[in-house]
Amino acid sequence: MNKTALIAGVTGIQGSAIAAQLVEQGWTVLGLARSPQDMPGVTPVAADLLDPASLATALEGLRPTHLFLTTWMRMPTEAENIRVNAAMVRNLLDALRPAGSLRHAALVTGLKHYLGPFEAYGKGTLPKTPFREDQGRLDVDNFYYAQEDELFAAAARDGFGWSVHRPHTVIGKALGNAMNMGTTLAVYATICRDTGRPFRFPGSEAQWNGLTDMTDARQLAAQAIWASETPAARDQAFNIVNGDVFRWSWMWHRLADAFGIKAEEFDGTPHPLEEQMKDDAPIWAKIADRHGLAERDLSRLASPWHTDADLGRPIEVVTDMSKSRALGFTGYQATDQSFLDLFARLRTDRILPEM
Fold it and tell me: Of all residues in the chain, what percent are helix, strand and coil, respectively (each to 5)?
């Protein structure tokens, strides 16, 4: 059967990983973004998800069978997050309705489903870890829930299947992404190596000593594609992580070794990256110029606020993946190797200097 995927947010960490795997598997791939980039095997579709007219024009004549929703927009308040991000999902699904071709829509959200939105992140009464899909929603406003509700309503109306995918912090490459721990830590380590500054863990004691997990973008992509083609996965929500667990007290040394620097032991006091890196823009620009790097704008590479939010949590965070495994998804990825693979790619693409 013909398989044509439309990926909303194709230039991001998640969308680009899904696109790469679909192209490799021989799908027809349409990549939707406000400003599409040239991507091998991907037909660009330029549209604004908040502009129904631009969507109608951009999608005219296209008949995607599968939709992957991997984009969102951060607003100043959760009420605005809900209004804007729900509208983006609703507008796109409304624009696809006339074609009548959609068989499955996959929505990527995240562990804020269990931890709460930015305004109430990790506060109040939280589900016990490891997080499981049957733990349900928190009694707080959350734009993830609003996105889900738009998806559920459209699927019931138009008769397509759906899946929801909830990754932990995603490791992958995408410039200008608002949530990019892997590249943020790579840039931070590079600056520490160049300046001789200590490589200090920015987060909490709970994160340093507790168990945690992460999600390789390739692992997320594999699960989203699997769910879109597996009848038993229809109309289901799934957690998605790499399958291993680790402590940052171990991983921090692995990251330091990858940059030829020494990791400092956690001294019991958080050292947020927003504070550590507040004056680093000119330092990075000089490093980029000296090594002929492709991006000298630090703000397009590092998102200290997001890394601080993840590594500053006061609770242990681990995720259960039994549900998708019981249905046949067997993907696994070692998280330290995810970081090493990312760093190698960033060096190849001249985002980081060679060692």
Answer: 45, 15, 40
Q: Which residues of 69-92 are buried (b: 16+ CB within 10 A; e: fewer)?
A: bbbbeeeeebeebbebbbbbbbbb
Distances (CA, A) of 159 to 65, 97, 168: 12, 10, 30
Structural domain boundaries of the chain? 4-167, 176-212+245-317+334-348
CATH number of 4-167: 3.40.50.720
CA angle 136, 140, 142 (to 5 degrees): 80
- pLDDT by residue (tens digit) across 21-31? 999 999 999 99
Number of neighbouring beta carbons within 10 Å of residue 100: 10
Please give the model's pTM, rounded to 2 decimal places.
0.94
Bridge partner residues of 211 (DSSP):
247
DSSP state of 118: G
Cis amide prior to 130 (ω within 30 degrees): yes
Check if the beta carbon of residue 181 is closer than 8 Å to that of residue 191. Answer: no
Beta bridge partners of 42: 29
pLDDT digits (tens, 9 = 90+) for 114-165: 988 866 665 556 778 999 999 989 988 999 999 999 999 999 999 999 999 9
Residue in the block written with tokens 């931890």: 115
d(CA 213, CA 38): 32
Contact 168, 211 (CB under 8 A): no
Please report, for residues 9, 80, 84, 113, 268, the alpha-carbon distance to residue 147 in angstroms, rounded to integers and kept in the order given. 15, 13, 10, 11, 38
Catalytic residues, by residue number, are: 112, 144
What angle in degrees, to the nearest 10, is found between the helix axes of 304-311 and 181-195? 100
CB atoms closer than 10 angstroms to residue 134 = 8
Contact between 298 and 267 under an 8 Å Cβ cutoff? The reply is no
Q: What does the pLDDT look like over 227-239, one tens digit per residue? A: 999 999 999 999 9
Residue type (1 letter), 317: V
| CA–CA gap between residue 112 and residue 128 (Å, rounded) | 14
